[in-house]
Amino acid sequence: MNILNKLGFGVWSPDPSAMDPTIPQSPDDDSPAPGQQFAQFGAGCFWEVELVFQRVFGVTKAEVGYTQGLLHHPTNEDICTGTTSHSEVVRVQFDPKECSYDALLDVFWARHDPTTMNRQGCLYDCIFSFLGYM
């Protein structure tokens, strides 16, 4: 990648090997701790959203990452090109006995208002999913 592409100018073409669907992926052995559940939220910049969820009673872990993109294992530099179709997300592990999924949605909607300026509206995909494991 040349310097103009790194700065966000010019046409960017990802490394073809990075987009190869035959690239071996690590096993998806990531599951919540016993008695816990996962939920995933996309509300703009994940660092701020992660901090909000870390402070919720019943949340035992909050992790940031990317979803729905074209590259395997994207870097922040890849994402900043705007060509990978990824969205920033926070995956929350929570204890459903202490915190309901509905309560997490309340936290999400208090933080994310797509109708108000600077509240992470149309610039970001709104993603939330519930991954219940028991």
UniProtKB/TrEMBL annotation:
Its EC number is 1.8.4.11. SUPFAM superfamilies: Peptide methionine sulfoxide reductase (SSF55068). Gene3D superfamilies: Peptide methionine sulphoxide reductase MsrA. Keywords: Oxidoreductase. GO terms for molecular function: peptide-methionine (S)-S-oxide reductase activity. GO terms for cellular component: cytoplasm. This is peptide-methionine (S)-S-oxide reductase. It comes from Linum trigynum.
